[in-house]
Amino acid sequence: MSLFDSSDKYGLVSRALHWLMALGFVWMFFTAALHYFADETPITDALWPTHPVMGFTVFCLAILRVVWAVVNMSRRPPSLSLLSGLGHSVLYALMLVIPALALLRNYGADRPFSYLGISLMAPTGQKTQWMIDLAGLLHGELGWTMLALVLGHIGMVVVHKKSSSTTDVLPRML
């Protein structure tokens, strides 16, 4: 089993990053749905604080994934179509932009941010309203957009799996 990608299959590192992020996104979408549909309930109060921690984890994994994709650019399985390549590019962009917006909102609101006990952002003593407004406007909306794209991504994997006239792409990522 190769660490690096090949023209017919993603390598161990790409697959590990993909599936770890998939688990992270399941948790992110679950906690976001709780926050949206069942705010101020005991379960949301208990689980919502994990949303920023998991979000930052997924952000770090996304950065690693982009770097790894660039390293493997010439070896990766080719996109099946222009639309497929575009869809993956949009997913990668959202994986980076959505958590960056959350960090921007946090910074603008002058809130501290720590990750696993490590302080990454200290209060400055000054709020920056445009940061709060911009990130507040886009973070959640882009998150729901990403959920729709992820469901479309999964749907297309199923279509490719079931159709005899297209390439089964699932084995590339297993």
Can you tell me about this structure?
This protein is mainly α and 174 residues long. The chain has a single domain, classed as Transmembrane di-heme cytochromes, Chain C (Fumarate Reductase Cytochrome B subunit), CATH 1.20.950.20. 68% of the residues lie in helices and 4% in strands. The protein contains 6 helices and 2 strands. The chain has a two-stranded antiparallel ribbon. The model has no long low-confidence stretch (mean pLDDT 95).
Quick take:
The protein is built from six helices and two strands, in the order ααααββαα. The chain is mainly alpha-helical and about 170 residues long. The chain has a two-stranded antiparallel sheet with strand order 1-2.
Descriptive terms for the model:
174 residues; mainly alpha; Fumarate Reductase Cytochrome B subunit; globular; Cytochrome_b561_oxidase; iron; transport
